[in-house]
Every structure is written in C-alpha cells, then in structure tokens.
C-alpha cells in the first residue's frame, strides 16, 4: 500500500549509541530491539454505556491560598457497566481546559459496587484567579476496571468565566454524553481515545508472564469526529510505529472500519525490548488513515514522547510532542504497570 504522506522523513540514520548496562549492542539504527516482538490482540467493546444520572458538586476559589477547589459530593443513578453483576465502580475526574496538560488531572477515590457513590472529596488546583477565569472545568465520571478498560459514564463542562463565584453551595447537575467542544479548533481532525501502560523489566515478580525486558502497551480504543472525505463516510485504520524505528518490525496497524467517522477499534499492541532509559528517546507515533484501493489519505495523528527534539543525542523533527502528549507520556513513565487513559486531539504531523 502507498500513502499520500511520505514516511521517508522519519528514516533514522545509523549512529553510535553508548551501551547501557546489560546491553550488548553499541551500533543501533534505531530501537529495533523495542519492536523485536509484537503482540496484537483485539479487545471487547468497552465504554459503550449511555450517560445518565447526576453529580453533586460545588466550586470555590480560596483567595488567600490562590487555590481553585472542586468539592465533589456524590453521584446518583449512574449507568450500570457490568449488567451481569449489576455493578459499577465509579470515580470522578477533572481537567481544566483547553490545556489539559498544563494543570493536569485530578480524580477522586473509586467507590465499589454502587451507582450512587458518596465521595465528599475536594480536588484542588494551584492557579491564579485571572488565569482560571479563561478556563473551562471538565468534570467526568468513569467506571474503574482493574484491567484498564475504564468506561465513560458522563460529564459536565463549566465555563468558569460566567460562573457565579458567590454560589458556594452544593448543587446537582445532569451528566451528559462525551463532548468534543474542548478540542474543537481551526485544525480539528478528530480525537483519539486510548490508554497506554509501561511494564518495567522484572516488575511482575515471579509470575510466569513476567517480561525479561520492558513492555509498552498501547490500547487504541476509538476515534471521534474524523474528517469525512466523501459522502459515504470514511474507511479508517490506525498505524503505529515506535520511532526512531520505521522498519517492518516496528509497524503495526488496526483493521479497517468502513463508512464511520467515529470508528471503534479496541486494538491493543504490545512492544517489548523497552529499557526504562529508552522511554526518554523513543516516540510512539499513531496515525489515522482513510483507506482506498490506490492510495491512503492521512487524516491526523499523535506522537507520544518527551518532545525534546532529540533521540539518542541526535536532533530529529519527529520528537515534537505537544504539551498534552508529553504529559500523557510522562504520566505513563511515572506510573509503572498502570493503564493511563487519555483523549488526545489528532493533528497534522
């Protein structure tokens, strides 16, 4: 297959790399060891429940401590995720928009086996009032799954510029379906919903499947609001590379979802051979393409890495992650063996 956007610019010339302890290679064209073994599996359809129920919270700004406070009280009548067991394990998560990465994520504890959870927790942001007033608060409710298959239960967005700051009382608000208003922009190409996880070498103890080298797990869940190139819709698939490796060993792709601008992939890819120090120099590139017989058209992509512009001491143009993408990668690096979930806007690369 040929693509209308060239991949030649991503080729990585050979260079000397100082071997780390335990490494037997000093001449690497790329982190080809990272992609020496690839496991690709399809997961079930998670997160497909309809948003319902209400959430009770209050907002306040502490002038003395220059702190924005979100008092999350409780939720009522949430959707049931596991219908067989009749259970949901909900938690509440908040972001300040439009730059989710700048202030980061806050979340409550998880309440087990309830659709009427009581939290009484305060989520805090250190931020100047003038800066806060140009933000939006995104408050969402999620079902927590031990395997990282978290399900979206509903959300609410609050425009803080028009908020009545004299109102410090707890109030009830209806939860709504997922909104894309936070990422709408001039170059809006859609939004990818995914989770990533890093499993360090030997971190699983004496378990039979304990990896001898580190693994990066990439779970592409779905994409929303893709560009529609023709009346019939779009036939999309996702490509994945671990840069600087652009060889066939590194290349993976999902199946093609036909005639759908909101495709659900639920495709998981596992790259092994990752040493912890490789996470600073490697970059996971995920791109979405429209599939046609003669040529594939680039729709948008993301690059997950530290965005330093350098890879193994070499200046590269693809190490250009946005603040949001960098924050997502850093969160994965600091939370070994945990699934990190994200909703990232696609961009031109």
Automatic annotation (TrEMBL):
UniProt xrefs under Pfam families: C2
**The entry's keywords:** Cell membrane, Exocytosis, Membrane, Repeat
Q: Which GO terms describe its molecular function?
A: neurexin family protein binding
Limits of the C2 domain: 51-173, 196-319
The main location is: membrane
Cite the Gene3D superfamilies for this sequence: C2 domain
Q: Which compartments does it reside in?
A: Cell membrane
**Membrane in keyword set:** yes
Question: Which InterPro entries does the protein's record reference?
Answer: C2_dom, C2_domain_sf, SYTL1-5_C2B
Question: Membrane: is it a keyword of this entry?
Answer: yes
Query: Tell me, which GO biological process terms does this entry list?
Result: exocytosis
This protein's GO CC annotations: exocytic vesicle; plasma membrane
PANTHER family per record:
BITESIZE, ISOFORM I (PTHR45716), SYNAPTOTAGMIN LIKE 2 (PTHR45716:SF8)
Name the record gives this protein: Synaptotagmin-like protein 2
């Amino acid at each position: 297959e040929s693509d209308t956007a060239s991949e030649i610019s991503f080729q990585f010339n050979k260079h000397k790399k100082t071997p780390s302890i335990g490494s037997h290679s000093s001449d690497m064209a790329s982190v080809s060891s990272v992609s020496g073994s690839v496991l690709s599996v399809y997961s079930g359809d998670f997160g497909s429940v309809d948003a319902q129920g209400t959430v009770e919270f209050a907002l306040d700004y502490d002038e003395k401590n220059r702190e924005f406070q979100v008092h999350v009280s409780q939720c009522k009548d949430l959707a049931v995720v596991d219908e067989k067991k009749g259970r949901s394990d909900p938690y509440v998560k908040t972001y300040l928009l439009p730059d989710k990465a700048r202030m980061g994520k806050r979340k409550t504890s998880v309440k087990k086996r309830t659709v009427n959870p009581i939290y009484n927790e305060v989520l805090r942001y250190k931020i100047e009032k003038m800066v806060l007033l140009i933000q939006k608060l995104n408050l969402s409710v999620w079902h927590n799954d031990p395997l990282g298959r978290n399900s979206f239960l509903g959300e609410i967005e609050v425009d803080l510029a028009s908020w009545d700051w004299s109102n410090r009382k707890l109030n009830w608000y209806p939860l709504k379906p997922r909104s894309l208003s936070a990422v709408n922009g001039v170059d809006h190409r859609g939004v990818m919903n995914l989770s990533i996880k890093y499993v360090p070498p030997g971190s699983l103890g004496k378990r039979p499947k304990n990896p001898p080298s580190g693994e990066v797990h990439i779970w592409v869940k779905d994409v929303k609001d893709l560009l529609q190139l023709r009346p019939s819709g779009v036939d999309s698939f996702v490509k994945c590379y671990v840069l600087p490796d652009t060889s066939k060993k590194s290349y993976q792709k999902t199946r093609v979802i036909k005639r759908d601008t909101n495709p659900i992939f639920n495709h998981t890819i596992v790259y092994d051979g990752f040493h912890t120090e490789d996470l600073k120099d490697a970059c996971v590139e995920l791109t979405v393409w429209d599939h046609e017989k003669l040529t594939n058209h680039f729709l948008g992509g993301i690059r997950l890495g530290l965005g330093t512009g350098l890879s193994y001491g070499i200046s590269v143009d693809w190490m250009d992650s946005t603040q949001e993408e960098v924050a997502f990668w850093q969160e994965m690096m600091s939370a070994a063996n945990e699934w990190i979930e994200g909703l990232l806007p696609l961009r031109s690369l």
